[in-house]
Specification:
2 domains, 7 helices
Amino acid sequence: MCDDQRMARDLSDHVAALLHPQPRRRRVPEDVYEEALEQAEREREEAAEQLRTAWEETDADPVLSTLAGLHRQQVEIEAITRALLAYAREYAHPRPYTLVDLAEAAGMSFSGVRTAYHDEDVDEVAARTGLRRPRRPGSSSAGSSATGDRRTRSGSGRRGQ
């Protein structure tokens, strides 16, 4: 095995170990520990092989390609979080979820929940679910400005907290 292949193998194995850590005995019940360990090993081997193949076929560095993939996942998760917050505050019936409940569930401050989503996210919820965009109290049309509408709906006054 040449040095480049050995480096690819080591690097891929190391990245796979970081992505799929072995379970710790004290965190996993004894009766399922061996199964969890075998599953982690399978996942490591599969990930390492995929990383080696990608490096050989496309010259994709295992560390950089993994970081780029994780960043894409993070962006997707943030978009889904915004959509769920928009749904919970703008579409949920009979009344919106409270900022406090959403903040606790999302690991955010309640003011962070209030500002986390925008009109585009509310529109995306409507597009994905087929729900009609709600008319907001005090607005003359559904396309009102984000600032005025969001304050009324999001609970910065009395409602929803």
